[in-house]
Every structure is written in structure tokens, then in C-alpha cells.
């Protein structure tokens, strides 16, 4: 490798980091940029109102009378459209839920533990919402096919009470609704809410009151207005994917609404699930893992609908059948997601560096259990990572220190051969060889930092555990920018000091760029999550301390 190329490698890497950040942001804009009219539903803005399609039912497996297209409405609605249901209010320690007796559906789900804005704690995040301009629904029910009566989400059910609350000391709350076609079939639909959990169990008991076998299949449906937040460098909610997702038992897929509108999504398998996700939150419908379900996804009037319907179960006259499923409506708490279904944890989207980000989050979580503060967890995790790579970075640091010690001799060579780049390069290489210095080794710390930086970025951005988490003093939310830009300024100061400890670039232009690099980074990091800036600041402080110690030892040799 030529001397001039080796000398410039550190500079090139720094420029590459800046280019990587910028190009990543640009690519993200291109990948996820929505229609200009779209705005953030999470931020309670007013999007354009789309006309909801008619309530649809998934096709009954093997039913030749079902609609030809998945999700198409039946020819004869089971109930008149004018029927109005009663609202049942359900409160637990983590939920404020409305259930509509029309269909027995979850009509509205609010999360009291998670306010939309930290300075407005009384306004909780709301996921399910029947309003046309914020439509977000999970429909559940049973299909029977062949024109037989069925307890779909279009029928009126009955409830014994209109208000339920998880009792003090109780771990579970059951809410039961019933529906009956006299002399034919009786259905009991029960929701199970658990203390501290966003997993909602759903059970059906189907009793055949007739004289003929009764065929029934359970279905789950996720329906939502396609209205992702407008992509903005200043809107942290817009950084994450918002839209439909699916899992096929082994692969997690973010579904493109435009592609789904052109070619409906279909699959048939066991161990899958469907969901609609957004930054930090999701609503998922999870069938029994052992059963083969048929899945489809369609788009109509800018509203996407995901269906999952199970196999038909035949209930003998006088007999009964038990059917079940699970719903998850709430924050992307990884421990809970992992317990509900395989692959559900993948909705916490750490991107291509998931293999690095997942153990990094695990490390942060373990430290947090000890110290109880995510800011200190970031600092301590950074210290542990730095310690793990200490020997590796010490070797490169020693090379940098020797390069700095050789700086006067290098400058003399550059001055002597300033008109002959070839001889200058040869003389510098000879100097490096004689003094046993590898200038490229100084680039190793930067190469190590890049993947950890990107992984840290996604961990801090995507992990709801750190949403609105305070550190200390003015940092009240590690997942958003420093409100006074103090951390970015401190980071710039430490980076400037770090530059003084390293050998100066041989080229004046490069030296000028490196001099202003801390200011450029401070400008970019000013709007990054404060937790990410805290990581970079901590890492830079540790690097400065390490390099200062090495420089002092080399100078004494």
C-alpha cells in the first residue's frame, strides 16, 4: 500500500462515516416516503379522510359459496347495517379498552402507561380507533359457510355487564359475550386480560343446538387506514416503518401497501401471524401456532385488510368445540412479544445489524436491571464494550502515538520531496518500515465503531423500553434530541481534543476538514436521540483517555 494512500485512510474513513449517515438518511427517505398528504396519526394530526370499505369477511375454507376474492363481503349481511352495539368499558393496570357488542370487537384500545407526549401524561397512546380518519381495527369472529348462521364481527352479541375492571390483587380479568341462533348454535366469546400484560387471550365455545353437523372456522382480521407519518429528520416517530407486516413461521415481512393493492398477499401455513406496526407499538393477531391458517391481504380506498382464517371444525349435534387465538395490542416490549409468538419480537426492527443490536439491547437491559437508569446503562455498556476491545484498540493507539512522535521527521521528508510525490511516498514507507509503524492500524478503532454506532442507533430508536426514559438533569427523554444541544456540543469538544492527540493529516485541505469535523458531527448529532449522542460522547471520552495514556507512555520511551 502506498504511503500517501495509507496516510489518507483515516481521513477517508471519517468522511465515509459522514457519507454513510447522510446516504442512509436519503435511502430511508426514498424507501419509506409516503404520499405528501399523509401525516402522523400518533401525533394526533388530521390526515385526509378515506371512505372505509364495507365490513368484509374472510372466505370460509372450502366454502364454494364464499366470495371469490379474499376479503370480499358476503352476498347477504348476517345483520342489518343499522344495528348499533353497546359499548363495554374494560380497565386494567395497562389497558383502557372499549368493546363493542356489535361483533364483540375491541373498538378502542388506549395505553395509560404510555402518554403520547411526556409533558401531557393524561393523553395516552391510542392504537385501535374506529374513527374513519384514524381507522385502526382488529375484527374477530367465526365463519360457518353454506349460509348457516355465524358469529362473525357483523352480528350483535350480548354482555352481562357494561363495565369491567381488574380487581386489586387479581391477575386476570375475563370479559364474556354471547350470541345464539335459537335451535341451531350458541357461541360464547371470552377475552382474557392479564395484569401487566398486553397479550389478550381470545376463546370461543361453540355449542351445536341443532340436529345437523355444524362447520365453523375462527378468523382474525387487521384493518387500518394507510396513513404513515410524514418522513422528517425532526420527527423521530417517522424513522420507523408504519404499516402491515406478516410472519410465515420463519420469515418476517414488511408488506408494501402499493404492491399489495396491485397483487393481493396470500399464504397458507402454520405458525404465522399478522400485524400492523408503528414506531414503538403494534397490534397483532396470532392464530394457534399448530394450526394451518389461510392468510390474505388486500387494499381498498387506501385501507389495507389482513385476514387469517383457520381450518373448519365440525361440531356434532349436541356437541361443542373450543377455538382460541391471541391478540397483542400495545408497546413492543421484547420480553412479552417473545412469549406470545415466535418471530413477534422481530417487529422491533433493528435493521440489517439485528445480530449485533439484539445482544447489545440484552446487555443494556441487564445493566438497567442493576442501575435502574437507561442513561447510566448506556455509559456502562459503552465502558464494557470499550474494555472488551481494549487490547485491539491499544495496538492501533500505539501505532497512532508512534506516528505522532514521527511527525517532525515525516514533515521533513514531505518538505524535502514536496515536488516529487513518488520519492516522498517511498521515503515515508521506508521510515515506517524502519520504525516498525503501521499507519493503517490507526484506522481500526473507526472500523470497530461504525457497526456499533449503527446498532446503537437502532437500539435507541426502536426499543420502546427507552421511550421517554429520563437520564438526569436536562435529559428527560433519551429517545429524542437533547433539548439544549449540550451533549452534541460536549461531543464536539471531546472530538476536537481527540484530534489533537492523533497525528495531523499530511495534506492541508485534509487537515482543515479534520479540524472542522467535530463541528460537522455536532450539527448532525444535534437532532439524533440523546442516548445515541451520550454513547458517542462516552466512547470519545474513553478513547481520549486511552490515547492520552498511550501517547504519554510512547513519548517517555
Can you describe what's shown?
The protein has 557 residues and is of the alpha+beta class. The protein folds into two domains: 42-343, Beta-galactosidase, Chain A, domain 5 (Distorted Sandwich); 358-399 and 442-556, no CATH class. Helices cover 35% and strands 25% of the residues. The chain has twelve helices and 20 strands. It is elongated and about 105 Å long. The two termini are 28 Å apart. The relative contact order is 0.11.
Give the overall shape, derived from the CA principal axes.
elongated
Number of strands: 20
- Return the CATH architecture of the largest domain: Distorted Sandwich
End-to-end separation in angstroms reads 28 Å
- As a whole number of angstroms, the C-alpha radius of gyration is 30 Å
Helix content: 25-40%
Amino acid at each position: 500500500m502506498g504511503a500517501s494512500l495509507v496516510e489518507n485512510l483515516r481521513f477517508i474513513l471519517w468522511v465515509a462515516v459522514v457519507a454513510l449517515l447522510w446516504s442512509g438518511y436519503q435511502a430511508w427517505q426514498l424507501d419509506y416516503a409516503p404520499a405528501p398528504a399523509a401525516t402522523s396519526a400518533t401525533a394526533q394530526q388530521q390526515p385526509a379522510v378515506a371512505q372505509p370499505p364495507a365490513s368484509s369477511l374472510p372466505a370460509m375454507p372450502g366454502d364454494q359459496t364464499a366470495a371469490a376474492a379474499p376479503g370480499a363481503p358476503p352476498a347477504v349481511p348476517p345483520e342489518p347495517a343499522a344495528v348499533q352495539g353497546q359499548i363495554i368499558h374494560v380497565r386494567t393496570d395497562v389497558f383502557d379498552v372499549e368493546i363493542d357488542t356489535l361483533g364483540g370487537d375491541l373498538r378502542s384500545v388506549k395505553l395509560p402507561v404510555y402518554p403520547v407526549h411526556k409533558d401531557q401524561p393524561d393523553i395516552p397512546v391510542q392504537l385501535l380507533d374506529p374513527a374513519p380518519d384514524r381507522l385502526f381495527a382488529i375484527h374477530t369472529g367465526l365463519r360457518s359457510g353454506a349460509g348457516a348462521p355465524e358469529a362473525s364481527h357483523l352480528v350483535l352479541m350480548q354482555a352481562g355487564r357494561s363495565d369491567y375492571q381488574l380487581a386489586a390483587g387479581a391477575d386476570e380479568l375475563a370479559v364474556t359475550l354471547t350470541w345464539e341462533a335459537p335451535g341451531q348454535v350458541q357461541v360464547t366469546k371470552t377475552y382474557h386480560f392479564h395484569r401487566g400484560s398486553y397479550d389478550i387471550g381470545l376463546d370461543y365455545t361453540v355449542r351445536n343446538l341443532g340436529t345437523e353437523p355444524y362447520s365453523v372456522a375462527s378468523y382474525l382480521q387487521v384493518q387500518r387506514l394507510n396513513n404513515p407519518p410524514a418522513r422528517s429528520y425532526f420527527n423521530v416517530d417517522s424513522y420507523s416503518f408504519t404499516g402491515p407486516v406478516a410472519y410465515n413461521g420463519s420469515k418476517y415481512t414488511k408488506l408494501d401497501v402499493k404492491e399489495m393493492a396491485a397483487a393481493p398477499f396470500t399464504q397458507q401455513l402454520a405458525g404465522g401471524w399478522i400485524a400492523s406496526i408503528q414506531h414503538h407499538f403494534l397490534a397483532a393477531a396470532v392464530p394457534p401456532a399448530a394450526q394451518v391458517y389461510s392468510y390474505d391481504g388486500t387494499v381498498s380506498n387506501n385501507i389495507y385488510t389482513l385476514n387469517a382464517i383457520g381450518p373448519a371444525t365440525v361440531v356434532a349435534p349436541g356437541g361443542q368445540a373450543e377455538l382460541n387465538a391471541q391478540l397483542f395490542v400495545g408497546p413492543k416490549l421484547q420480553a412479552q412479544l417473545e412469549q406470545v409468538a415466535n418471530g413477534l419480537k422481530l417487529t422491533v426492527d433493528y435493521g440489517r445489524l439485528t445480530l449485533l443490536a439484539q445482544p447489545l439491547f440484552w446487555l443494556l437491559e441487564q445493566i438497567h436491571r442493576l442501575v435502574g437508569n437507561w442513561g447510566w446503562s448506556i455509559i456502562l455498556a459503552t465502558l464494557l464494550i470499550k474494555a472488551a476491545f481494549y487490547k485491539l484498540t491499544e495496538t492501533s493507539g500505539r501505532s497512532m502515538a508512534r506516528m505522532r512522535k514521527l511527525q517532525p521527521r515525516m514533515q521533513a521528508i514531505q518538505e524535502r520531496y514536496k515536488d516529487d510525490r513518488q520519492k516522498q511516498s517511498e521515503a515515508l514507507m521506508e521510515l515506517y518500515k524502519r520504525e516498525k509503524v503501521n499507519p493503517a492500524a490507526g484506522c481500526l478503532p473507526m472500523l470497530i465503531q461504525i457497526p456499533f454506532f449503527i446498532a446503537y442507533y437502532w437500539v435507541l430508536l426502536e426499543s420502546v423500553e427507552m421511550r421517554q426514559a429520563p437520564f438526569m438533569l436536562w435529559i428527560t427523554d433519551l429517545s429524542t434530541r437533547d433539548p439544549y444541544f449540550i451533549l452534541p456540543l460536549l461531543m464536539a469538544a471531546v472530538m476536537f481534543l481527540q484530534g489533537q492527540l492523533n497525528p495531523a493529516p499530511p495534506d492541508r485541505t485534509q487537515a482543515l476538514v479534520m479540524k472542522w469535523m467535530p463541528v460537522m458531527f455536532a450539527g448532525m448529532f444535534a437532532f439524533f436521540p440523546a442516548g445515541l449522542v451520550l454513547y458517542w460522547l462516552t466512547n470519545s471520552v474513553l478513547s481520549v483517555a486511552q490515547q492520552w495514556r498511550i501517547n504519554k507512555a510512547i513519548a517517555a520511551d
